[in-house]
């Protein structure tokens, strides 16, 4: 039997098994990815989307579920009212997509979540497949190629796409666009930059950083961090002073994310500290230690330095720090993946994957109380078609959560 025939038979068998029992097929999919089979990446992306469907709709998802139900009987003008200051929050690609889905009776918030997570992982896997081709041509072993896959896979913000949609999904488009931009496909890169901004407007800042960092001939060093931090603080301080009382939208954002409950007013407790450290904090610190020790002339290093400055400045403001952490993790993973020829990476790869694994898995543990009310156990024994029908009825959600989408005591 020819090798191509064996591959075809293996592909058919794995696809059938995935259709019957997706959960059981995951180890086989990872083996197929190790062997360089592209179809396995698509199936794994589908599984991650299915996994997200079993997240109990708490927090932001509670609000999105209510939005979907509300939009069913609302017109476009009712939902996107340009006469209100909140239009900046509503008018984005995620909300528009949810509005369109609300007009299709069988679409649930779980299916919307499936689509967003699927898109996020497909973008990340597309980056890996492109890098893998370069690694294979350079003679990099399968083991090392697979380790680079795990770095990119575990850096994909499953939690943030699942729990909040916009920040996580926008980050995937941003990183995909950055990779395409670096590869010389500037048109594709710019389109993805625009999509990232239309998903979450805060990514406009990153577009400026990317353009400035990649086009600046000066290579930033550790010594540049201090003057950059002073410069950024001065610019931000002047901008806030000049615009705070004159632009209502900016005043609302500052009151919420800097002075308000998501800024300096937030109360740090054990739960929040563990979230900060284990989901983004420690992985970002470790990845920066490895990345900044790599000696190269890549202009992507400029973006890493500027991003580090922003991270340090944002530490007192939880919501801003959290969003920067999402992008930082993917940005660092991309830099490490395209620096596959540097020996220091593989000398530290076990350490990297340990913290990335904790970052990837910890949110499931953090939300264990919510998962007790979910149907997550079904994913271990049900076929794909039934898993795709999973949804949580309004009554069951309202019975468990309060009006803020938080579990009742």
> What does the largest sheet look like?
none
Termini separation? 62 Å
Query: Based on DSSP secondary structure assignment, what is the total number of beta strands?
Result: 0
Percent range of helical residues? over 70%
- Taking all residues together, what is the mean pLDDT? 85
Calculate Rg over CA atoms. Answer: 22 Å
SSE order, one letter for each helix or strand: HHHHHHHHHHHHHHHHHHHHHHH
How is this structure best summarized?
Helices cover 72% and strands 0% of the residues.
Description:
This protein has 409 residues and is mainly α. The protein has 23 helices and no strands. Helix 14 (224-243) crosses helix 17. It is globular, with a radius of gyration of 22 Å. 33% of the residues are buried. The model has no long low-confidence stretch (mean pLDDT 85).
